[in-house]
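Worked Example 4.2. Consider the chain below.
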Amino acid sequence: MVLYDRIIVPIDGSAGSERVAVHAAALAAVHDAELHGVYVVNAGGFAGLPMESSWEGLDDMLRADAESALDKVERAAEAQGVPAETHVLEGTPSREIVEFAERGECDLIVMGTHGRGGIDRLLLGSVAEKVVRASTVPVLTVRIEGGDGDEAAGEVPDDAAPESPAEADAAADSTATADGGE
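Applying the procedure from the previous section yields the following structure tokens:
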């Protein structure tokens, strides 16, 4: 049974984002699906710069960052023998990701999350959380480095077992799918 024909992997090039690309490419290989790497240039974040700033230089730098990040998706797809396309979009990241997925008839969004909680999430926001809330397309989040207490990009040793049923429930909650399923 094939569940996914088109998988989108939004990538920002941050540390750990290659892990997300590899995970998405592996899923695409299992489902014989197309992989679409997406990088969103959030030019609105630079609107407050003085007009004397070199917009041309800034745009070139942002485009270079996009190409570097999308190279990770292309390499991961090539390693899995999966067809891949890359797309550079402009706008608000969460909005552009959701619109691309829905407009492109994608079946799954695979994206990274830093697993921040508390005040960090409140102050910094979360693109992944906004996508999960707004998207009609299922979202699979992959934990990457940088979360609270995250030492190995969310990986748990095979021999690590919960000490109590409450810990087992907490572990199950942290691995539930983003659209509420388990």
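Residues 55-80 form the longest helix (26 residues). The mean pLDDT is 77. Compare this with Example 4.1 before moving on.
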